[in-house]
Each structure stands twice: as structure tokens, then as C-alpha cells.
Design brief:
- This protein starts with a helix and ends with a helix.
- The strands form 3 sheets. Strands 3-2-1-4-5-8-9 form a 7-stranded parallel beta sheet, sandwiched between helices.
- Helix 8 packs across helix 11 and helix 14 packs across helix 19.
- It contains 21 helices and 15 strands.
- The protein is globular and about 65 Å long.
- Strand 2, helix 3 and strand 3 form a beta-alpha-beta unit.
- The protein is an alpha/beta fold.
- Helix content is about 45%, strand content about 15%.
């Protein structure tokens, strides 16, 4: 890299949710490894977690700084200590949380005034950051944390409103001006499909985010060119956005220690987990995990358990439930389930070392909610997927996995229902798991997934497309700052 990178200072400002903070830390590491001074802006209660993750990085931890700004819980009507989306005690507080994040504008501007960085990489959920950066003549890059495919699909929805051309929520429509004849229904995109200007809350925030996209300097994308080149080109050329692909970001974590500690405090010893997997044959275990936000009801968890047992496959299942002290029987598990599954199935209650697990050769498939971090981690590990979208842009990501890349099978979720998801019966779980693990078609998907994994790993090495795009972005920011 040229000397310019050593004089660059970039602010990274992630949305206050684990699924946004973790890839942003990975991104800051990438820039710091190129000699850029990286400062992550966050709030006091999120800082220790970020600090712990950075501390596990052997190479670049000294190039990354953390700067905190106070989170206005009281002003926004939130209980004290609610500084992270994932720690909200109830979904009734979501609106207040978004209100609180808007109030971060003034403290951010104070920091911009004091430190005047060369660039601000701010999360899409801070649409006002474009104006804040512009006040000080600083370029703002948006980080969406999703795929080019989803960005194109959302742009198509916003420009053409195809959902207005169907008479019911279940009737499908084609996304206009999008390669690949992609069909959706209103049920899958409901909160996104509201008339502009008529919205409040989350849909309103999405609207503002898309609007500020047009005015920002450009977009950084956690993806790689070879994965979705048609859509990367489409986003840049047809929708006219400046964008750099610099992913898969999770691949900046090289050793076991880094991979194990890039999330929250683990609920299982990483080595114990790997030892369990070491005893299994290659491609023989299904990994089941729905990210950090999805909140399935007990009835759905019971159906997942029943479906996994009926499939006859070995599995690791990550559940966001903790065993209560003295609890003889957990209501969400079928009677005697863990006893019957001993040696065959492992339940991790809480946080798991996902990247380490997916990278293990015994993992044969991944049942996922299609959040983009998880989807791309599955791609990077070369693991085919059972897609189970719940909300946000996850239904778009499902289309990419099942119809464009052809490395997954849908479980059959049809409807965006908050964070609790559409109801899926146990036999659909059984069927999807068997389809992804057994037979000729499963083999085809696995081979395709392994090929994509090789491309993913190549793209971040010297001369790879993401490696080159990152260098080009740093060069451009360097020449802007002169």
C-alpha cells in the first residue's frame, strides 16, 4: 500500500446490534491491517465487547481505537442499560430504540468536529450520518451488511413498487429491472412495501436509509465479485451506485482463537465443541442456528426438535434459551429428547463459535435464517443450506441461495411475521434436512458450495477481487484527502 493509507483516519459507526457490530469490527481490522487508523464509534455498554474481540486479534489490535458516545436511554424512554438491539426486553421498545439512535447525531458531530477523520463508514440505520459528514466535508460510506443481490432487489422494489400490481398478499410478482426473473409476494416483503411518506417506525427508517444512499459517497459491501457478479455490475451500472466489495469480512479471522472469540461470550468451550465434531464423519452433521435476533416461540422449537429427530441426521443446534436453575424439564423440548439424542445431537444454549463450527469438515449442511452474515459464512465454509427466512431482507437472501447460486433448499417459510417467524411444521423440517443431506441433488449442491468457498478464500488474498477493491478504496480516500 502507498504511504497515503498511513495518514488516513476512518470512523466506523456500526448499528448497535451484534449482527452489525461483528462485521464492522472485521472491517476495521481489514483497514487497520493496511495501515489505516480505524476508530470504532460506540456506546459505553457495547465498548467492552468490542474491546475484547479486538484484543483477540494478534496483528492489528493496536491500529484500532474505540471512542464512546453516551446512549440516551432516558431521553428516548428506554430502561437504563438498553444500549444494544439484542438486549431489548420487549419488541414494544423497538420504536424507542430507533428514536434513541437518532439522538446520537449530535454527539457524533462533536467527534467529527474534534477529530475530522478522512471518512465515516456508517451503518445504513444511521441515515442522518450522510448529512452529519457533509457538514464537515467528510465523505460518508454506507455499510448495509447485506448482498448486492438484496441491494438490487430493494432498489427495484423502491423504484417500481411491483407489489401494487397484484390483488392479494400471496400472489407473486416479478421484480422489475432485475436479472434472473425473481418472484416475490407481498407477504415476504410486507413492511418494506408501504407507500413512501405514509410510513412510521421501521419502514420509515428503511425509507430514509434508501434515500440517504443516493446522497452518500458510496457503499461498502460484505460480498465478493465472483459470488454475484451479475448483481454487483447491475448495482453499479444500472442503479448507478458507487460500491466496493471487500468481503467475506469474516475471513480476516485466521486462527482458531480469533474465530472463536469474534462474537459474544461462548456458551460452550470451543475445543469441546470441535472435539465432538472430530468424532463425526465428513459432511455428516447438520448445523442449525438462527442468528442473534430471531425469537421463535416454544411450539416452533418443539417442531424443530421433532423434525431433526425424524430426519435421522446428526446435528448441532444453537438455541437462544438458557436452562433455568432447578428446571427438571424444558417446556420447549419434547420429553426425553436430549437423552435420546445423546452422541447424535448437541444443543448449545446461547452463543456458539459459528465460523469455527461451519469450517469443520464434518458439517454437511446449515439450517439458517438467511441473515447475510450467516449466509456468507456458510458460503465461505462451502456448506449448502436449508433456508428459513424470518424478516428484514432475509427472503431476498433466500432467493439468492436457492435460485441464483443453487446451493440450498427452502424450508417453506412464506411470511414475514416480526421476529417470531412463519410457522413451520416438523415434517417440513424433516423433509428439508433430508433433501440437503441425502441423494444426488444434495451432492451437486455440496460440490457447488465447495467451489464457492474456494473462490471466497481466493478473493481476499493478494490479487483477489476483494483484496484489490479494498486497496482501490483506500487509494481513492487517500487522494480525496489531499
Amino acid at each position: 500500500m502507498s504511504d497515503e493509507s498511513h495518514n488516513l483516519h476512518i470512523f466506523f459507526f456500526p448499528f448497535l446490534a451484534d449482527g452489525h457490530i461483528i462485521p464492522t469490527i472485521d472491517m476495521a481490522k481489514l483497514f487497520a491491517a493496511k495501515g489505516v487508523k480505524a476508530t470504532i464509534i460506540t456506546t459505553p455498554l457495547n465498548a467492552p465487547f468490542i474491546s475484547k474481540v479486538i484484543g483477540k486479534s494478534k496483528t492489528v489490535s493496536n491500529g484500532i481505537h474505540i471512542q464512546t458516545i453516551e446512549f440516551p436511554c432516558a431521553e428516548a424512554g428506554l430502561p437504563k442499560g438498553c444500549e444494544n438491539f439484542d438486549s431489548l426486553p420487549s419488541s414494544d421498545l423497538l420504536h424507542s430504540f430507533y428514536v434513541a439512535t437518532r439522538l446520537l447525531q449530535e454527539p457524533l458531530e462533536q467527534l467529527l468536529l474534534q477529530q475530522h477523520p478522512n471518512c465515516v463508514v456508517a451503518d445504513m440505520f444511521f441515515p442522518w450520518a450522510t448529512d452529519s459528514a457533509a457538514k464537515f466535508g467528510i465523505p460518508r460510506l454506507v455499510f448495509h451488511g447485506t448482498s448486492f443481490f438484496s441491494l438490487c432487489a430493494m432498489a427495484s422494489m423502491r423504484l417500481y413498487e411491483p407489489y401494487n400490481n397484484v390483488s392479494s398478499d400471496s400472489e407473486s410478482f416479478v421484480l422489475p429491472n432485475l436479472p434472473g426473473e425473481i418472484k416475490m409476494t407481498r407477504m415476504q416483503v410486507l413492511p418494506l412495501a408501504k407507500k413512501p411518506g405514509s410510513t412510521t417506525g421501521f419502514p420509515r427508517l428503511l425509507e430514509e436509509a434508501q434515500e440517504s444512499d443516493f446522497r452518500c459517497y458510496g457503499v461498502v459491501v460484505n460480498s465478493f465479485y465472483e459470488l454475484e457478479e451479475v448483481y454487483a455490475d447491475h448495482y453499479r451500472k444500472v442503479f448507478g451506485r458507487k460500491a466496493w466489495h471487500i468481503g467475506p469480512l469474516s475471513l480476516c479471522n485466521r486462527d482458531t482463537e480469533e474465530k472463536a472469540h469474534r462474537g459474544k461470550e461462548l456458551s460452550i468451550d470451543a475445543h469441546e465443541c470441535l472435539q465432538w465434531l472430530d468424532m463425526k464423519k465428513p459432511n455428516s452433521v447438520v448445523y442449525v442456528c438462527f442468528g442473534s435476533v430471531v425469537k421463535f416461540p416454544d411450539s416452533q422449537l418443539r417442531d424443530i426438535a421433532t423434525g431433526l429427530e425424524a430426519s435421522g441426521q446428526q446435528f448441532i443446534w444453537v438455541v437462544r434459551k438458557s436452562k433455568k436453575d432447578g428446571e427438571e424439564r424444558e417446556e420447549w423440548l419434547p420429553e426425553g429428547f436430549e437423552k435420546r439424542m445423546e452422541g447424535k445431537g448437541l444443543i448449545i444454549r446461547g452463543w456458539a463459535p459459528q465460523v469455527l463450527i461451519l469450517d469443520h469438515e464434518s458439517i454437511g449442511a446449515f439450517v439458517t435464517h438467511c441473515g447475510w452474515n450467516s449466509t456468507l459464512e456458510g458460503v465461505s465454509a462451502g456448506v449448502p443450506m436449508v433456508t428459513w427466512p424470518v424478516f428484514a431482507e432475509q427472503y431476498y437472501n433466500e432467493k439468492l441461495v436457492t435460485e441464483v447460486l443453487k446451493i440450498g433448499v427452502p424450508v417453506g417459510a412464506k411470511k414475514w411475521v416480526g421476529m417470531v417467524g412463519d410457522t413451520i411444521k416438523w415434517d417440513a423440517v424433516e423433509k428439508a434436512v433430508k433433501r440437503i443431506m441425502e441423494g444426488e441433488n444434495a451432492e451437486k449442491m455440496r460440490n457447488k458450495a465447495k467451489l464457492l468457498s474456494q473462490l471466497a478464500r481466493r478473493t481476499v488474498e493478494g490479487g483477489g477481487s476483494s483484496y484489490s477493491d479494498l486497496n482501490a478504496l483506500i487509494e481513492e480516500l487517500g487522494s480525496l484527502s489531499h
